[in-house]
Design goal:
D-Maltodextrin-Binding Protein, domain 2; 48% helix; five-stranded mixed beta sheet; transport; Bact_solute-bd_prot1; four-stranded mixed beta sheet; 22 helices; 448 residues; alpha/beta
Length: 448
């Protein structure tokens, strides 16, 4: 982006922010406190419209003294807008964010407040899973998470496997052996949507790196004990190269936009589908329409959730990449003790409270960080869809290793993203890619 474009972007965001405040009038005049919110939502997903009424309208009903001006965006448009807000210094009062990775700029610029003092003041620390309250990239609790997230989940269409005389693979070799059998029937082995460069890195490669590098690979890297040019990382890239070249994952997935081929998997056009755990919600019933990509009956009888099978040379077993989940942060621009700060915290408490986290569990959006939400009790008493119970069992079956974009700076993980796509296209060898990532890592260390 040129300097002129950056200036124009900042000016546009400033103008939009001023327009939003002007359009809604003064809090003093209206008798309410107005706060701006940056929300992350895919309006094409099941239950997205229902979320507006169940969550945002509910908050408005409970808190008529607070006016919320909400901006809804998804995927790259959301992240691009956040970067523009950070550059302008005109951040919305409450913002959906990540503990690191895609929210690196929010965290490293300390554009958001530490939420731990707010939790402590209200006596809410014990209400949350302690693993969700650890310091994040900013060095403090910059966002209150929805829960813990597995960035890797491998969905299985067991009906497709049975119809083709196959069973759930225990090893990569067994998975690879399915290629000729399934391709002969016009069925893909593993479906993914890899056009967005983060998907392969976050949803599969991070798990591969964890298996071959160990759960502590990042700590060893940061301590200078290992490098990206060492065997653990080169072999990880070699496996991705083999996955593409053997057609375990078709190269055409590099032209598929995120989330757009879930229906193909649900309809039996692929035997497996790899995504993050959050994608389970896309297959469940839309409360508004009563429709589901995978019916509850099929969820129970014909689909399972697993991790990528055993990889040759792995040093840890039964692991998936995981990280503290997304959640809500508060702008550092809010004056301490102000009505706006109090209103922003009231909204965050609601969004991460028992009511909303129960709703998110029921719709498959996330598993709760709030300990007041009893998952097993809700599954039994409310008869939640089978994918909810199977997802709970999934979490109990695997331990986690780091998500690459959750621990590395964007200057480094973006290079990994590009390398992975070029390997998929056959434009880069694993050794070349490893050398480029190592250079990016050394450059970042030298400048920080």
């Amino acid at each position: 982006m040129t300097r002129l474009r950056k200036i124009l972007t900042v000016c546009l965001v400033l103008a939009m922010g001023m327009a939003m405040v002007f359009a809604n009038g003064s809090s003093e005049n209206s008798g309410t406190t107005t706060i701006r919110v940056m929300n992350y939502i895919d309006m094409s997903e099941p239950n997205s419209m229902n979320e507006i009424s169940m969550v945002w309208d509910k908050f408005a009903e409970l808190h008529p003294e607070i006016t919320v001006i909400r901006e809804d965006l998804f995927n790259e448009p959301f992240h691009q807008k956040v970067e523009a807000y950070v550059a302008s210094g005109n951040l919305p009062d409450v913002i959906y964010m990540w503990p690191g990775g895609r929210s690196t700029s929010l965290q490293t610029t300390h554009s958001v407040k530490d939420l731990m003092p707010f939790l402590e003041k209200d006596g809410l620390v014990s209400s949350y899973n302690p693993a969700c309250l650890v310091p994040q990239t900013a060095g403090y609790l910059a966002e209150l998470p929805n829960g813990l997230t597995a960035s890797h989940m491998m969905f299985v269409n067991t009906k497709v496997l049975k119809e083709n005389g196959l069973s759930i693979p225990k090893t990569y070799e067994e998975l690879k052996a399915m290629v000729p059998v399934l391709n002969a029937k016009g069925i893909e082995v593993v479906g993914m949507a890899n056009m967005d460069s983060w998907v392969m890195q976050s949803c599969l490669f991070s798990t591969i790196v964890g298996r071959l590098g160990g759960a502590d690979w990042y700590e060893k890297l940061a301590a200078g004990e290992i490098n990206f040019t060492d065997a653990w990382f080169v072999k990880s890239l070699e496996l991705v190269d083999d996955i593409y070249s053997s057609n375990v994952i078709n190269r055409n997935t590099l032209q598929i936009g995120y989330g757009s081929n879930r229906g193909d998997f649900a309809n039996g056009k692929a035997a497996f589908y790899i995504d993050g755990d959050w994608s389970a919600a896309a297959f469940q019933t839309d409360i508004t329409t009563g429709q589901a990509l995978i019916s509850p009956a099929d969820q129970q009888a014909n689909f399972e959730m697993m991790a990528f099978p055993v990889i040759p040379g792995e040093v840890v077993h039964d692991t998936v990449s995981g990280v503290v989940g997304t959640g809500w942060g508060m702008s550092a621009n809010l004056v301490a003790g102000s009505k706006e700060e109090a209103a922003a915290w009231e909204l965050i408490k609601f969004l991460e409270g028992e009511y909303v986290q129960t709703y998110r569990l029921e719709t498959g959006a996330s598993f709760p960080s709030n300990l007041n939400v009893d998952v097993n009790k809700l599954i039994d008493e409310k008869g939640l869809e089978p994918f909810v119970a199977k997802r709970s069992a999934f979490y109990n079956s695997y331990t986690t290793t780091p998500v690459i974009d959750g621990v590395l700076h964007s200057d480094v993980y973006n290079e990994i993203n590009v390398v992975l796509q070029e390997i998929g296209l056959g434009a880069c060898t694993p050794a070349q890619g490893a050398a480029r990532v190592q250079k990016a890592w050394e450059t970042w260390k030298a400048n920080n």
